[in-house]
């Protein structure tokens, strides 16, 4: 709204200045201040009646084209059933927002036009926005060293400090946002992101497993699929993860060290007991204790699983210690009722850190314990094959991906797979989305800043035409005049550079770093090079644009400009 206000305000101000003599003449004919304000407000209303519907239509079609492309980087895609629809409330809200912005923007120009008197209209120059209310002007500063073009340019910017500041602020905002976008995009750590979701190259299972519906599924990973994978040249090593079907059998632990809302008939918390091949067990990081593989395979020991939060901190359970012996119960289920089938004791050999996407059924709520596959199988009535994570040989990821894609599409459609590349693409889609949206906003705000700069320079030139003609009549050359305007543009650029450096650095160190720390896969890096790249282009634009604009008004002779009313 603020950037829209700047553009509309400047446009109406230029319109008022160009027609300032006309408003003065209307005053001579008896038109009141209120009537002049009404004229300008009516102009704004008519322009809004035409412009707002056109803007809504164009905005809708642009949004309809861009939103699906942007949403492809998220889970909200057309494949997921998400479609772009026409919502009347959005159109109504946008129209009201645009009209309020126009109404606010036109107030000041209308006030200036309404306050003008015929005499003031004739002699109007851009001393300040309150030229029509102030009788006493600032004292003229005398100089003994003669007029300096760069000093004159600096003094000219001080004629309307408010507008100068607004233009600098609008350009500064775009640069700070532009820098912030690159700070965020450069800080996203792809290794952290991928490792969080998948610490193996691939994982295969049923489609329900990847849809987090494994507990209620009737379809499970087939040995046929695993054998087909193992026969591929790209295959290196992998391991099976086993569990039990909770609707038929459950495990509980006779201890207060773990908690669960779901309990057995004795009030003991239900737990998740898994059987895992050596490939999976050996990839788990030991947090506490040591793993004696020979002892673990005696069936008397278990591994207690820990996980990490989003910030990489291990979520420990201090109530369970290495060496604790826990009694486990196996229950046969008949609906919601359970019958005790077996009880056995296991000693906690070590606490290990697991990956929840490759080492579990992808559920939450229950404490997790792990046994070697051969020791787990005798404890279950109906063994379930949960998943098969595996690694491939270096450089052969694409070969395996092609095979898996063809297999799940044409041979076993009820099966599915995930790969590190899946999450790499997801990561790049997410960062591309941020860069696209942030970059687009930066460009839009930057263009608005440039438009405001052009409007500001244009307003200044229009209101100072007679002044420029007078300066040329006493000896200032056209080249010097263009040089003065270029200096004015340069000062805008210098002001923007200083402001953006100060605000950009502070915003990055204080705000961006604080916000980014909430992203577990973000590693903050101080970035300033995007602004440094833009600065030379900014300087060129602000120096060249005033000269180009002046040429359009310098075509008439000095005499003609001096005689202009």
Describe, in plain words, how this protein is organized in 3D.
It is a single chain. Helices cover about 55% and strands about 15% of the residues. By secondary structure, it is α+β, with helices and mostly antiparallel strands. It folds into three domains: about 1-125, no CATH class; about 125-130 and about 145-200 and about 420-565, no CATH class; about 235-390, no CATH class. Strands 4-5-11-7-10-9 form a six-stranded mixed β-barrel. A hairpin with a 2-residue loop joins β9 and β10. It is elongated, with a radius of gyration of 36 Å. The two termini are about 35 Å apart.
Summarize the structure.
This protein has 19 helices and 13 strands.
- The unreliable regions are 127-140
> What amount of the residues lies in strands?
15-25%
Radius of gyration: 36 Å
Major sheet description: 6 strands, mixed, barrel
Sheet with most strands: strand arrangement: 4-5-11-7-10-9
Average pLDDT score: 82
Note the topology.
Blueprint: H1 2-18, H2 20-28, H3 33-71, H4 88-115, H5 118-122, H6 149-157, H7 161-187, H8 190-197, E1 202-206, H9 207-210, H10 223-230, E2 235-238, E3 241-244, E4 249-254, E5 270-276, H11 278-283, E6 285-289, H12 293-296, E7 301-308, E8 314-315, E9 325-334, E10 337-353, E11 368-372, H13 373-376, E12 383-392, H14 397-410, E13 415-419, H15 420-463, H16 465-473, H17 478-516, H18 529-553, H19 558-562
Parallel strand pairs: 5-11, 7-10
Antiparallel strand pairs: 1-12, 1-13, 2-12, 3-5, 3-12, 4-5, 4-9, 6-10, 7-8, 7-11, 9-10
Helix pairs in contact: 1-4, 1-15, 3-4, 6-17, 7-15, 7-17, 7-18, 8-15, 15-18, 17-18
